[in-house]
Automatic annotation (TrEMBL):
HAMAP family assigned: Arg_tRNA_synth
Cellular localisation: Cytoplasm
Its EC number(s): 6.1.1.19
Domain Arginyl tRNA synthetase N-terminal residues, every copy: 5-95
Organism in which the protein naturally occurs: Paludifilum halophilum
Protein name: Arginine--tRNA ligase
Protein family according to the UniProt entry: Belongs to the class-I aminoacyl-tRNA synthetase family.
Gene: argS
GO biological process: arginyl-tRNA aminoacylation
DALR anticodon binding domain: residues covered: 437-573
Quaternary data: Monomer.
Ranges that cross the membrane: none
InterPro entries referenced in this protein's UniProt entry, alphabetically: aa-tRNA-synth_I_CS, Arg-tRNA-ligase, Arg-tRNA-synth_N, Arg-tRNA-synth_N_sf, ArgRS_core, DALR_anticod-bd, Rossmann-like_a/b/a_fold, tRNAsynth_Ia_anticodon-bd
GO cellular-component term (any): cytoplasm
Amino acid sequence: MNALERMKETLKQEIRDAVVNAGLAAPEQVPEAVLEVPREKSHGDLATNMAMQLARIAKKNPRQIAEEIISQIDRDKAFVKEIQVAGPGFINFFINRSYLTQVLIEMAEAKDRYGRTNTGEGERVLVEFVSANPTGNLHLGHARGAAIGDVLCNVLETAGYDVTREYYVNDAGNQMNLMALSLQARYLEALGKEAPFPEDGYRGQDIAKIGRTLAEEEGDRLVRMDEEERLHYLRQYGLNHLLAKIKEDLGRYRVHIDSWFSETSLHESGAVEEVTKELSRRGKTYEKDGALWLKSAEYGDDKDRVLIKQDGAFTYITPDIAYHRDKYERGFDRIVNIFGADHHGYVPRIKAAMAALGFDPDRMAFLITQMVKLYQGGERVKMSKRTGKAITMVDLMEEVGVDATRYIFAMRSPDSHLDFDMDLAVSQSNENPVFYVQYAFARINSVFRQASTRGIPLEQSVIRESNSHGTISIPRVDPDSLCALREEQEYDLLQKLAEFPGEIAVAAEQMAPHRVVRYLHELATQFHSYYNAHRAISEDERLTRARLTLFAGVAQVLSIGLAMIGVSAPEEM
């Protein structure tokens, strides 16, 4: 519990004690004290409707009750400088915000762990994201899903959840057979042999390159193989190389995957066949027109779904049901799926299937990311100038950088459409959101360099430590100097810093990683405003130390927050 939370809990307790001391209610009759932030700043910092809650119990007018409560509150203990009764009986509190300097002490103790909570209590969460077909490049939708998924995982971990990141490899089905045939044709071409190309084959450069590599490594050894054996070998060889490329691209994008789950493993283990038998044993299937159907409409789907077709082949949804059954059986408390906009109709089908299997579908959540449109020079961009083909995640990273790509994709709610302005993403202006936040961090470090140049002992106010994300500034607290922080904007900054752990906890609970990005932008806005209005370094040594300490606190949170969204924190720009 940080200083802000302690202040609120103290005030709540004072309100409860005041009710009892005023004789308005017995201890067991006192409702839970609720504090809210008024919409208008003129109405105070916090407000409660306790007087109105007590009207029936105390049998008095709420405004009279409010006055009696106020008379019993210990203002010093509750950090209250003024109390007003408003409207039908609201009690508005104007807080003495000097207590907020305690936040810097807590931040100094926590170091790079500031913001961490135990909200998740170790709850096991599986987050599946990206899961792109391995036969193609990662496109813009995958890039957005990867950024959102990775940031969400970071947020969940910071809030105390036990997170596993998973990629579902679609390595079964006709697309892999087609890939093997395409690779065979390119391999034979590389050997100078006649090679008919499959009609719907994969003609991308990746397959051609793998074919040339295969010819260099194996020569004509594969030509002498039985065709079935050769295609089996090519299928696995091609998959390994394609997955290696995806892993490399995600690595450049600063995304780590813990588990690569193979669809083929579900078929080889018999899990796909078993799940259809389990559903039938439960009476959740029926036969019609020679096919096996799932009674998914009974569980909220818009219609029943075919599991096994007339020819005995599984439909695409059957392995997916087996896969999600496996997720539940692995014991995860919460299962999160991040999919593209084309999967919207997929959600009720999978939830229905899990309910039919006896699992709680409410343990499973879906984040559906909406479409991305790229703009450059005021016009929509669809093709890469370099390749003449659809722009991929790699193209965008090379064009605008990883920082801008990840930040912009993570800054909006997944369910909102996103217009990505490539010109804005590379501009060094306040309109560029990632530059705006990074510049706040760079500005602080510029002030630290100025302090050193002017002979001001920075170590009195700032600790500089290295971690996996670079150098982090941590406040070195001198309680005596912190008393010099008295400006409202200073208290605003301190309160914003105090809100960071709570913001992370809410973002995790609501699975809304964009809240963290919004928070960083708001913190940067407050800092830039303060920086433009106040000098950090002055002739007042005590005030200078206090403001450098405050700056270190802001830099600490910016560094932690930017690392959480996978964006660098440059000390110079």
